[in-house]
Every structure is written in structure tokens, then in C-alpha cells.
Design goal:
With 351 residues, the protein is of the alpha+beta class. It is built from eight helices and twelve strands.
């Protein structure tokens, strides 16, 4: 693994589709050569606040790499072992006894294992081998240009319910997940905070208010809605509650961005900028800012606001409209409309 770039990049998003598009492009920008080594899968750690849509990153990143449709992917039904051990049959006892005689080893009685098979599904004309337990530990593999690629996902927060059984020791849990993989590719690890695991890429999704992420690390933006209100120049932070997010990306493996392609994509296609260049008052909760803010009313220069690019024209229009209404002493403002086509993310509405 190459050295840490020590640089974090961030952007604000407004719609669920923003996260879908971003997740796909990040996965597609991982150089193909990094996906071939079974012993060194590319690890993408995903963390953030509660109910912020973290699973979108794995679902649509995986679909992009495998050229599959996310909705086609399904996982087999897991038949858990019975709570009470099932007694060995007479035949199994005889077989174990014979094995112990032949191998000259003590007889070891093992219980029948639970039934857990993979599930083959078709998507975009290709076969996908789907294994694991959905939302807990997932493994999807397929052949890409004659190479088998395995894209896996694990949520480290559960501790139980995995296809490999319950494991509350986080290091053992992570290792068991690694052992289930069949080829090189990607690992999406949610809520991972291991001292001996340095992810190649770290992605954080933050919504609403708060001081820390689920894995205990400090958030970058303490109040996402407040930051968006500062940019728009009016409205209520609750208007941005459903899909307003601050997304940060950090490269811990500089080799993944050796030619600058991934960082260029983040900046040119999505409007990311370095975290250190984002105005501090955008990232702190309003109660931490005090009364002595620049710009008088606390609003920011719209050019300093890192919003995902497809929404910038509407953000500029909203800011101009709200500024004009304020000068005229009117209350009319732009309202955020979530989950809408790109051309109507922000629309004029009477408040």
C-alpha cells in the first residue's frame, strides 16, 4: 500500500441519485489492475451518520464494476443451524469411528453444518454468483475480461447474523469475511474502525446534525441543513433533511490516484474541493459559530460552496432570488424539492 495522501475532499449533495452516481463513478475509477490480486483486494471503508444511505455506496459501486443492475442482485436463503445440537445418526457415528481408526486419530463428533449455497442470477446478459446474507455480509462475483472479480460487503456493526456465523471480535469478524472471498476485487466495509486495517479509500456520508460518525470518528460537517441554508440564503434546514448530505472522500492509497484520474473525476464531474478550503462556518454547527460571523447575516460567498455540480445553476438562482426578496422586504423564497428530476431540484415556491 502506498503512503497516505493526507487530503480529504468534500461536497454537498441534495438527492439520492447524487449518491448513486457518485458511488458508481468512484468504483469505475479504480484501476483494473488493482482488482486482480486475491490477497490484496481494494478496501473502501464507508462510514457516516445514522440512516444516511451508506449502503448506496456499496450497492451501486458493485453494480458499476460488474456492469450489472443492482436490482437484479439477490442472495440465497440462509438456513441457520438449530439452537439445540442435532444428534448424530448411527451411520455418522460409525463413519467417524472408521475415520479415526484409519487416520489413527481420536474420534471427533462433528454436527451437520447448516445449508448455505450460492445463488446464480443473470444481469445484463452475464451470470453473477451471489453469496452471503443481504445487508450483513454479501459476496457477488463474475468474470470480467477473463478475470474473476469478487465484490464483497460487510457491516461490522452487527456482530451476528453473518453467513460465517456470529463473531463479536471485530478483527476475527473482518478476517472471516476475507476468508469467504474467492478472488480479487473490492471490499466495502461499513463501520470499520480497526487499528490494523487501513482502507484504500474512505467515504463518509453525513446528514442532519451531530458531532461523530457511527464508528466514533468526528464528523466533518456538524449541521448539514444549516450549511445548505447559509448557501441558499434562506429557508429552513429541515427542507434538506431527506437527502441533503455532506460527502467526504479520502485516499489512503496514493497509487489508486497515481495518474490523478480519480481526483480529477471528483472535482470536474461532482464539484469536490479540499476540506481545508471549505469555509469553517459551513462545517460547524450554528451554536459553535458565535455572533461574529463575516458577511453580516452569516451567509457565504456562493463561489465557496462545494455543491454537486448538476445543482449549482439552481443554487445560484435560489440565492439571487432570495437576496432580491430580502432587499424588497418580501418573504418569498426558493424551496428544495427532493427526489425530482435534475432540472427541478430547486424550484420557486411561495413560502
Amino acid at each position: 500500500m502506498s503512503s497516505n495522501t493526507n487530503e480529504i475532499y468534500g461536497v454537498f449533495t441534495l438527492e439520492r441519485q447524487d449518491l448513486v452516481d457518485l458511488s458508481a463513478r468512484i468504483a469505475q475509477c479504480v484501476p483494473k489492475g488493482f482488482l486482480k490480486d486475491k490477497d490484496k483486494p481494494v478496501v473502501i471503508a464507508v462510514d457516516g451518520s445514522v440512516r444516511c444511505g451508506k449502503k448506496i455506496v456499496a450497492d451501486y459501486g458493485r453494480a458499476a464494476v460488474l456492469d450489472a443492475v443492482h436490482e437484479d442482485i439477490a442472495y440465497p436463503t440462509y438456513i441457520s443451524p438449530p439452537e439445540e445440537p442435532v444428534p448424530l445418526t448411527r451411520f455418522q457415528k460409525i463413519k467417524n469411528f472408521c475415520r479415526s481408526i484409519i487416520a489413527k486419530e481420536p474420534e471427533v463428533e462433528t454436527e451437520p453444518e447448516a445449508v448455505f449455497d450460492g445463488l446464480a442470477v443473470m444481469s445484463n446478459g452475464k451470470s453473477l454468483d451471489c453469496r452471503g446474507v443481504g445487508e450483513y455480509d454479501e459476496y457477488v462475483s463474475s468474470n470480467i475480461e477473463s478475470d474473476k472479480i469478487d465484490i464483497s460487503f460487510i457491516n461490522m456493526a452487527w456482530g451476528s447474523g453473518y453467513s460465517f456465523g456470529n463473531e463479536y471480535d471485530v478483527e476475527k469478524c473482518y478476517q472471516k469475511h476475507i476468508d469467504q472471498r474467492q478472488a480479487g476485487g473490492l471490499i466495502y466495509a461499513h463501520n470499520v474502525n480497526l487499528s490494523n486495517v487501513l482502507p484504500d479509500i474512505e467515504i463518509k456520508l453525513e446528514r442532519g446534525t451531530g458531532h461523530s460518525c457511527l464508528n466514533g470518528q468526528a464528523r466533518s460537517c456538524r449541521d448539514v441543513g444549516h450549511a445548505l441554508v447559509l448557501a441558499v440564503g434562506g429557508g429552513d434546514s429541515e427542507d434538506f433533511e431527506e437527502w441533503g448530505r455532506f460527502v467526504s472522500v479520502q485516499f489512503n492509497n496514493a497509487a489508486l490516484n497515481a495518474d490523478g484520474a480519480m481526483l480529477k473525476m471528483l472535482k470536474d464531474e461532482f464539484g469536490f474541493c479540499a476540506l481545508k478550503d471549505i469555509p469553517v462556518k459551513l462545517m460547524h454547527a450554528p451554536e459553535l459559530q458565535g455572533a461574529n460571523l463575516p458577511d453580516g447575516d452569516g451567509r457565504i460567498n456562493i463561489k465557496d460552496f462545494p455543491l454537486i455540480k448538476k445543482h449549482t445553476a439552481y443554487l445560484h438562482a435560489a440565492r439571487r432570488h432570495n437576496d432580491e426578496c430580502e432587499k424588497a422586504g418580501e418573504q418569498d423564497s426558493f424551496e428544495l424539492v427532493v427526489n425530482t428530476p435534475r432540472t427541478s431540484c430547486l424550484q420557486k415556491a411561495s413560502m
